[in-house]
Amino acid sequence: MPAARDLRELLALLEERGQLRRVRAELSPVLEIPEVLRRVMRRRGPALLFERVRGYPGWRVAGNLFGTLERIKLALGAERLEEIGERLTRALAGPPPMGLLEKLRGLREALDLARYAPRQARRAAFEDTVLEGGEASLERIPAFKTWPRDGGRYITFGQVYTVDPATGVTNIGVYRVMVRGPREAVVHWQLHKRGQQAYREAGERAWERLPVAVVVGSDPATMLAGVMPVPYPLDKLLFAGVMAGRGVEVYRLPSGVPVPASAELVIEGYVEPGREAPEGPFGDHWGYYDRPARRFPVLTVERIWLRRGPVYVGTVVGKPPMEDAAIGKAVERIFLPIVRLLLPEVVDMNLPEHGVFQGIGIVSIRKRYPGQAKKVMMALWGLGQMALTKILIVVDHDVDVHDLNQVLWAVAAHVDPQRDVVVVPGTHTDELDPAAPYPGYGSKLGIDATRKLLEENNGRPWPEEVEPDPETARKIDRIWSSLGIDAGG
Ligand SMILES: Cc1cc2nc3c(=O)[nH]c(=O)nc-3n(C[C@H](O)[C@H](O)[C@H](O)COP(=O)(O)O)c2cc1C
Predict the structure, then answer these.
(1) At residue 289, does pLDDT exceed 80?
(2) Pick from 224, 236, 260: which is nearest to 88 by CA?
(3) 176 CA: nearest ligand 1 atom
(4) Is the CB of 214 under 6 A from ligand 1?
(5) DSSP letter assigned to residue 269
(6) Is the model's pLDDT at 225 over the cut of 90?
(7) Which of 41, 43, 250, 427 has the smallest C-beta neighbourhood within 10 Å, fewest atoms?
(8) What does DSSP say about strands 47-50 and 20-23: parallel, antiparallel, or unpaired?
(9) Is 477 a catalytic site residue?
(10) What CATH number has the domain bearing residue 170?
(11) Residue 194 alpha carbon, nearest atom of ligand 1
């Protein structure tokens, strides 16, 4: 099944599969809808469509669309999410085509990449209503207040579109956006993110304005592309096409920013390098309110575009697991082939939901040489957003990284703390990490839980692992059912 073409197609598909519930009670986007969403996310329940939104006649609100991996796969029309990363790596890795047939196959794969490129749409769904001047007020939008001490109303699942001044590539980032007034908002793109990079580039070029568009509710591939840690400067619209399996239809706004033609809501505006305002507090995905307000760029609204009968999409973050835990898992699966292209010894990885994605990462490797586990740690701490992972645990290839009990066994049985634990002080870290001494600056912990080679073990061979006697095991296999143990004996 192909990826859904817009939000409404996705809602219909989820409803058909019994994965969407409609809520008819009238609820407010201030605390009430977020509280219902929070409870449903905790239970890994269905997507919700709120049909009556207090104070916002004509609007509907959707949430928890991506609360399970199954729904994400359904939305993207992918049986395996790794398939998406493989579409990219296939084009780059593998022996060069030699024979004619192989050359033709290589050509087809190159054409495949072109097939994922964005396509220009003549019309956009959101042209139904265009609000300008005083009409273009953010007060018309059912932005959430998610936690009682949040510093204001937030667009929590908006995709922030920018065109990079240095490269011309489009970025899509899911960054929270705080409503500051009818025509002003604050964009929370963090230090290590591509949105902030575009902003810095604009400042260095002495641009007076960097055009920005905030999109809410589009086809699921572009919504999720905003969360993907795509290496700079790969175009995120192209990556969204790779995720959808076809090019995204885009509409170029008067400001020049391309946005998906299927969007429900587009806020068009600009940020001015140097013009910043306090942002927060906000209850974030670590389960804490952020530190006291820090400054981020002010977005000035020029135009608001709306599809008729608009459907707003919002999410809530907090102590895991919430919707973003499932989205984090999808990122892990999609990027595994790309990590493996760069670090071929990597077998699998697990960014456990309760480890807050950037808190703890577990990686299994096929180890060949001494020190390799630490080499993998150093590589990952330098690789895109994997670099923000605070604690890395490296295990051997035969440990299932998704079985935390197996991982604990490997840590308990294979780690000599003095030899196998590294603490790297004074490093980059996630800006929101509540334990870091300074936002964006902290330290790393690496645990090498692989079996040690001679060189790593003072020249002593690693002990022999207990295994059943094969002949006895075969015999017991044959008579196992007759022992009646499985039947509760
Ligand atoms: C619900 C949700 C909210 C997020 N909010 C922010 C945010 O406020 N700021 C931020 O920098 N990243 C935020 N992220 C993470 C980014 O979307 C993610 O790091 C993404 O890869 C950024 O894209 P970029 O590499 O193009 O900057 C959020 C993710 C989710 C799922």
Answers:
(1) yes
(2) 236
(3) 8
(4) no
(5) E
(6) yes
(7) 43
(8) parallel
(9) no
(10) 2.30.110.10
(11) 27
Q: What is the mean pLDDT of the chain?
A: 95
Give the domain CATH number at 365.
3.40.1670.10
pLDDT tens digits for range 173-189:
999 999 999 999 999 99
Residue-range definition of the domain harbouring residue 420 = 343-457
Per-residue pLDDT band for 349 (boundaries 50, 70, 90) equals: very high
Check residue 91 and give its pLDDT. Answer: 74
Say if residue 352's pLDDT is above 60. Answer: yes
Q: How many angstroms is it from 357 CA to the middle of ligand 1?
A: 12
In a domain, 233, yes or no: yes
Dist CA 233 CA 168 (whole Å): 9
Choose one of 167, 193, 201 to mutate for the ligand 1 pocket test, by most ligand atoms within 8 angstroms of C-beta: 193
Pick from 298, 313, 328: which residue ends a domain?
Answer: 313
Residue 152 Cα, ligand 1 centroid: separation in angstroms? Answer: 19
Q: How far, in Å, is the centroid of ligand 1 from the Cα of 173?
A: 6
Q: Are residues 151 and 236 in the same domain?
A: yes
Instruction: Please report whether residue 156 resides in a domain.
Output: yes
Q: Give a yes or no: residue 208 inside a domain.
A: yes
Q: How confident is the model at residue 487 (pLDDT cuts 50, 70, 90)?
A: low
CA distance 86 to 248: 19
Query: Within this chain, do residues 15 and 113 fall inside the same structural domain, yes or no?
Result: yes
User: How far does residue 218's CA lie from ligand 1's centre (Å)?
Assistant: 17
CB-ligand 1 contact for 175 (6 Å cutoff): yes
Q: Has residue 103 got a pLDDT over 90?
A: no
Look-up of token digits 């095991």? 473
Which of 284, 324, 420, 430 is catalytic? The answer is 284
Q: Do 293 and 389 belong to one domain? A: no
Burial class, 59, CB count within 10 angstroms (exposed 0-12 / middle 13-18 / buried 19+): buried
Reduced to 3 states (helix: H, G, I; strand: E, B; else coil), residue 7 is: helix
At 138, which amino acid appears?
L
Q: What is the pLDDT of residue 291?
A: 78
For the chain, how many structural domains are there in total? 2
The three-state secondary structure class of 215 is: strand
- pLDDT tens profile 448-472: 999 999 999 999 999 999 999 999 9
